[in-house]
Design brief:
Immunoglobulin-like; 6-stranded mixed β-sheet; 5 domains; Class_I_gatase-like; about 725 residues; Rossmann fold; Ig-like_fold
Length: about 725
């Protein structure tokens, strides 16, 4: 009917009640006009009754919230999307002819019998569709990073009937997170084409450096580097820590037969600010690459210890376990306040502790017993002093008091039902690099955590918030937020929905897993980070770029009430020891600005940004970044066979090498044949929310009134 296979109207309430109300409206309308004063013609009485009935019927319809559902089958040819790695690592000369074999495979796919079922995309730091007839022109193999997670973007599936993905790459990720988790949830077979050589070359490299992003002046901090070697066991190498070009510490190590060494340095910053450090190895004869002998990084040095206040509505295991976790961090001064009655706490000096807190943890607080006087003090800290806070939200929390700071919460609380559900965390794959959980990314550990008591209700994450974990109940994934963070207008908050999170510590303690402690400490650290220029923020998207890369700047600008400013002139002066450049940012609206500049010379760069309004200086900001110290695409020369194979196996695909042309084409053809060329397209229209419905009602009543007046009726 009308080109649709299914047309359905649904109501929020019973159809029987709806029909009875319509009949009542019909009876009422004609009853009202059975007699009129003065008498009018039968046609006019019928017209007036009909207008009244029609207006009432539409009002009843709006009240019942009708939804029109349309469904039709549309023919979509099944497609295989081929993603080609366009990064610099594809140019590596490892004897496998990476680019030549990639282009040869693409040519054979273009001339095969399935060519009409294939779309080509390039991927590096982003994903872009490319014209099949211009592939050799569009693929430059010069991008400075490889981000697999960009492939698994649901926007790519819009208006397409995708049967499978094919990824042509060396499998080396230099940006973003591992795609395995996102690919599994995507539910589409992934065929991987392994480019390069998976054999290990003779080499030494700094694989990783572990450090705290934020440390404190005059407080020693440990910096640990992992050094790997292949073919150099028994040889000695000097590992050094530098601040800028100044040597901080040097150690000589003997490379282990296992291929892995760890070395720790002690670093004490004398002043606060952003420090550029690097771990370096001296070069050895016969290395396949020396680009991975240097590992630079930036460290933020702060001036004082952070005062963390745990404010609990009652004594609880959650309070005890969180306190123990936070006390393991030397840079925290941890205080507690445990409520025992409306204004009384177990500990002394509650007012002084609240006033001096840099970060506040609200654990099932405020309760109904909490005095308004005490809560006013907490409210003052959050609303007027922008103190960051953590909230453990559950049925012990007094929602009416909490509503007084509702604008600062990371969630919107619509209802709490008073019950608890046993729930496990289900990490959001888009947030695996979030600093709150990034040190805990072992999905097996998270999946094996015991259930906590989840607060049953209608709780929604705000638009500007990030859901770090959803809930999983009886292995069913629900879009109910469990852990939510919010960083908006320089105000930070985190919310756990539920209680008994201490059970996570008991589960992991026996296995020597620091998941719980790291999570709690990371939350406190993240909350304690404050933007000094809260009205003006300028930063580069990365701290390290390769020579010739486009350096991307983003800025945010607000007035004193934190309303976005969209008409400012923002100019950035960029300097290195030998180079200087200027950049003007473009407004994107909503207080956001962006700009890009290509810097060809290597070195450390500093930048100073000025925001002007009506030609006058409004705000200033500065920062640092580096160009050329590392070329991340050249560090790992070995093809990551393990990742490509795992990605294929986990998604029901297969791994091939570029010479397996016939096998690849057959596998793509097989995946296409398994998918129907018909797709059901559903559309829903909320008829009750259309403003024209009310306009029609007003017009009908107005017309009825006009006819009555013209007829001299009361």
């Amino acid at each position: 009917m009308f080109g649709y296979d299914k047309i359905e109207v649904s109501l929020s309430f019973s159809w029987i009640i709806f029909i009875l109300l319509i009949l009542a409206a019909l009876a009422y309308s004609f009853f009202v006009y059975r007699f009129t004063l003065p008498p009018v013609s039968e046609i006019k009485r019928f017209t007036l009754a009909f207008l009244r009935f029609l207006a009432l019927s539409i009002l009843i319809l709006v009240f019942f919230e009708p939804v029109l559902s349309l469904e039709k089958k549309v023919k979509f040819e099944p497609l295989n999307i081929v993603f080609v790695d366009d990064s610099k690592s594809m140019k590596l000369n490892d004897g496998t002819q990476r680019i030549e074999k990639t282009l040869s495979l693409i040519d054979k796919l273009k001339s095969s019998d399935i060519k009409n079922n294939i779309l080509f995309y390039s991927f590096a730091s982003d994903v872009k569709q490319i014209d099949a007839n211009k592939i050799t022109d569009e693929l430059k193999f010069d991008k400075s990073s490889t981000n697999f997670s960009k492939i698994f973007n649901s926007d790519l599936l819009k208006d397409k009937n995708v049967a499978s993905f094919t990824i042509i790459s060396d499998g080396v990720i230099t940006e973003g997170s591992s795609p395995i988790y996102a690919a599994e949830k995507f539910g589409i077979p992934v065929i991987t084409i392994a480019i390069g050589d998976s054999s290990k070359k003779k080499d030494i490299a700094i694989r990783n450096v572990l450090f705290n992003e934020y440390v404190y002046a005059e407080t020693p901090t440990s910096i640990s580097a992992t050094i790997i070697n292949h073919g150099f066991a028994g040889q000695s190498v000097n590992a050094s820590l530098f601040e800028g070009n100044s040597l901080i510490e040097q150690q000589q190590i003997i490379l282990d037969e296992s291929g892995v060494n760890s070395v720790s340095f002690t670093y004490t910053a004398q002043q606060s600010g952003e420090k550029k450090l690097s771990v370096r190895l001296n070069n050895l004869n016969g290395e396949s690459s020396t680009a991975n002998n240097v590992y630079p990084f930036f460290l933020n040095v702060r001036s004082n210890k952070i005062k963390v206040l745990l404010l609990s509505g009652s004594p609880s295991p959650d309070l005890s376990f969180m306190k123990n976790a936070l006390q393991k961090e030397n840079n925290f001064q941890v205080n507690t306040l445990t409520q025992v009655s409306s204004s009384n706490f177990i500990e002394i000096n509650p007012n002084q502790k609240i006033d001096s807190a840099d970060v506040i943890f609200l654990l099932s607080f405020p309760t109904k017993e909490t005095s308004q006087e005490i809560f006013n003090r907490v409210k003052e800290k959050i609303l007027n002093k922008n103190t960051p806070f953590f909230l453990m939200l559950n049925n012990s929390t007094d929602i009416s008091k909490l509503s007084q700071i509702s604008n600062e919460l990371p969630v919107t609380i619509q209802t709490l039902r008073g019950d608890y559900l046993n729930a496990q965390p289900d990490l959001n794959s888009d947030e695996l690099n979030n600093p709150i959980i990034s040190t805990n990314i072992n999905l097996n550990d998270w999946n094996n955590l015991p259930p906590i008591l989840y607060t049953d209700g209608n709780i929604l994450a705000k638009t500007e918030s990030k859901v770090l974990s959803y809930t999983k109940i009886d292995n069913n994934r629900l879009k109910q937020p469990l852990i939510v963070s919010r960083n908006f207008a320089s105000k930070r908050s985190v919310c756990f929905v539920g209680k008994d999170f201490w059970k996570w510590k008991l589960q992991t303690a026996t296995k020597n897993i620091q998941l719980y402690d790291n999570l709690v400490i990371n939350i406190a650290k993240w909350l304690s980070i404050t933007d000094e220029q809260k009205q003006f923020n300028v930063k580069t998207l990365r701290k390290f770029y390769s020579a010739g890369d486009e350096v991307e700047f983003v800025a945010e600008l607000y007035d004193e009430s934190l309303n976005p400013i969209n008409d400012s002139e923002i100019n950035i002066n960029i300097k290195s020891a030998t180079d200087e450049a200027e950049l003007s940012l473009t407004s994107l609206g909503n207080g956001l600005y962006e700009g890009k500049i290509k810097l060809l010379k290597s070195g450390d760069y500093s930048y100073s940004a000025e925001a002007k309004l009506n030609g006058k200086l409004y705000k200033k900001e500065s920062g640092r970044f580096n160009v050329g110290d590392i070329d991340i695409e050249m560090i790992e020369t070995r093809m990551n066979y393990e990742l490509l194979n795992d990605l294929a196996l986990r998604t029901g695909g297969s791994l091939f090498f570029p010479d397996d042309t016939e096998l690849i084409i057959n596998k793509i053809r097989e995946s296409i044949s398994k998918v129907s060329d018909e797709k059901i397209v559903e559309s829903q229209f909320r008829l009750w929310s259309d403003e024209w419905m009310l306009v029609i009602v007003i017009l009908l009543f107005s017309l009825e009134w006009f006819i009555r007046k013209q007829s001299g009726m009361l």
